[in-house]
Amino acid sequence: MTAKKAAETRRTSIGAQRNPDSQDAILRAAEEILVEGGLGSFSIEAVARRAHAGKPTIYRWWPTRAILLLDVYHRQKYVDIAPDTGTIETDIFQLLSGLLEFWSAGHGGAVFRSVIAEAQTDPAAGKAIAAYMADRYQQGGEIFRRAKARGEVADWVAPELAMEIITSFAWKRLLTDRLDITPEELRLVVRHLVEGFKVQ
Amino acid sequence: MTAKKAAETRRTSIGAQRNPDSQDAILRAAEEILVEGGLGSFSIEAVARRAHAGKPTIYRWWPTRAILLLDVYHRQKYVDIAPDTGTIETDIFQLLSGLLEFWSAGHGGAVFRSVIAEAQTDPAAGKAIAAYMADRYQQGGEIFRRAKARGEVADWVAPELAMEIITSFAWKRLLTDRLDITPEELRLVVRHLVEGFKVQ
């Protein structure tokens, strides 16, 4: 379930009336603020002002700043989580390099770091991230389902778990400020994942 | 370089006189506060009070709360980062299960989550974590150096990078609140790492 779907479920469950127009206006305003001023200028107050919405309206849909940030991040995200290059090596290489580059350029990395940081003290944001990640593992698992059909990947490999291992590496690089990986180093990372540590 | 060593270097470079007794008293006081009251009760002020130290003294050695927390965490840590069980599978299994259990029990997990979260907005804490992790990769890389000597691990495997991949998975489980892994699931994680995704 994506953060957006989670937010929809939440809305439905509390019986609030959805209003797609102003929901979109709020997300657009939030995105503009981020693009123009970065994370430092991002607050529920600033978003309310720009979207001509009341703060209670925003809080009804996005209970915390982190949850709103995650939805904005999710909208912006254009990284292909399941590239189809024909081999498992290059699929994983493209996925990881796309992710690390997206986080390096623009505000994507700063926003996601901030959402992860805030989720450590905000259980609702923690749940939203977990739902978002489960959704991404499911989508990205397509890489492994295709590679199994080609006979390239072992039957016992669990597509979602494999995706979790791959994206964990990317998270740690983001959170320790080490996104500047060379193609050679990234190829070596992929080789560890694809061939395993053990001698064949 | 560990956070502690980083702190020592910092002290030397600013020419401050080290005083191991009161440094230890401060770390002991910080640890007691954490054990007794958890993260919520942890502040530089509370540590100063309990250690009978001045706040400026603490700030001279540990410029931010996150850096002090990382040093306390480092002192408490009793997880064996390089278990020597005789096979690479069980070494990695023990390392990961030890880490996830340490984070689940007591305050270790909450403290480390908090340090990682604060490091996202505190560059000095980010540097301290990066130094701490580099030190851990170096120590834990021993698993791979031993396994290579046994002919169990391929020559091209990079011990520090392999340790980074392994601990990244543990970090993500911590940060997404999913430490409750079953032994079966953990064995499957280890199999992915050791055998690789690709059919042999």
Describe the model.
The structure is a homodimer of 200-residue chains. Chain A has 200 residues and is mainly α. The first copy, chain A, folds into two domains: 3-75, Orthogonal Bundle (Arc Repressor Mutant, subunit A), CATH 1.10.10; 79-195, Tetracycline Repressor, domain 2, CATH 1.10.357. Chain A is 70% helix and 0% strand. Chain A has eleven helices and no strands. Chain A has helices at 3-13, 20-37, 44-51, 55-61, 65-76, 88-104, 108-119, 123-140, 142-149, 159-175, 183-195. In chain A, helix 2 (20-37) crosses helix 3 (44-51). The model of chain A is unreliable at 6-15 (pLDDT under 50). At the A-B interface, helix 7, helix 8, helix 10 and helix 11 of A face helix 7, helix 8, helix 10 and helix 11 of B.
In brief, what are we looking at here?
Two copies of one chain form a homodimer. Chain A is mainly alpha-helical and about 200 residues long. The first copy, chain A, is built from eleven helices and no strands.
The CATH architecture category of the largest domain in chain A equals Orthogonal Bundle
Assembly of the depicted chains: homodimer
Spans of chain A of at least 5 consecutive residues whose pLDDT stays below 50 are 6-15
Under CATH at level 1, the class of the largest domain in chain A stands as Mainly Alpha
Number of helices of chain A: 11
What structural class do helix, strand and pairing data of chain A support?
mainly alpha
Biggest β-sheet strands, sense, barrel of chain A: none
The domain tally of chain A reads 2
Looking at CATH, the homologous superfamily of the largest domain in chain A is: Tetracycline Repressor, domain 2
Biased composition (Basic and acidic residues) (chains A, B): 1-11
Protein name (chains A, B): 2, 4-DAPG biosynthesis transcriptional repressor PhlF
Domain HTH tetR-type (chains A, B): 20-80
Keywords (chains A, B): DNA-binding, Transcription, Transcription regulation
